Amino acid sequence: MKIYGVTGWKNAGKTGLVERLVTEMVARGLTVSTLKHAHHETEIDHPGRDSYRHRQAGAHEVLVSSPQRWALMHELRGAPEPALDDLLARLSPVDLVLIEGYKRGPHPKIEAHRLETGHPLLAPGNPSVRAVASDVGAGDVALAGVTVPVLPLDDTGAIADFILRDLGLAR
Questions:
Q1: pTM of the full structure
Q2: C-alpha distance across the termini of the chain, in Å
């Protein structure tokens, strides 16, 4: 199972890029899963739902199943957040896992960058960033110091091509 990340600062376009990449990769015949890291408390369940009530009662894990999907919720209850490798091990095998977040992880990644966010680029100080997908051109002063390829943020095909070549999955 190959992994590749999409990283960047808040509002840089990470989620939209991951969404477009999933669509693109699946259209190319690959099986794809995603793993998203959140820095805040994430709630995928809602008060009053049976599964929420199970968790509130103290269940360690709650698995919800229906004819369309199933979901496993695991409560940490004060335990440390699992390492990325531990989370990846829980996924079913696929061709590619796209990881959103985990800026400091050692896996290869694309940095999503939008000039309007005003944040500095991660790429110059992060050797795991293999390319930058930006809304400004490669020659723009905002990208000074970037030594990795710069791709247009809205060119999903070119970004997918880059990732697949980098992983040796190009067909």
A1: 0.90
A2: 16
* Encoded amino acid at 37, one letter: H
Count Cβ atoms below 10 Å from residue 38 Cβ, excluding itself.
8
Q: What is the mean pLDDT of residues 96-121?
A: 93
For residues 167 and 6, what is the distance between their CA atoms, to the nearest angstrom? 14
The residue written with tokens 């050692």 in the block is 106
Residue 101's CB is within 10 A of a number of other CB atoms, namely 20
Query: Are 73 and 44 within 8 A, CB to CB?
Result: yes
**Structural domain spans, the chain:** 2-42+80-167
Q: Which fold has domain 2-42+80-167?
A: Rossmann fold (3.40.50)
Closest to 99 (Cα-Cα) out of 84, 121, 81: 84
Q: What are phi and psi of 80, to 5 degrees?
A: -65, 155
- Check if the beta carbon of residue 123 is closer than 8 Å to that of residue 103: no
Instruction: Please tell me which residue, 95 or 144, carries the higher pLDDT value.
Output: 95
C-alpha to C-alpha distance for 106 and 126, rounded to whole angstroms: 9
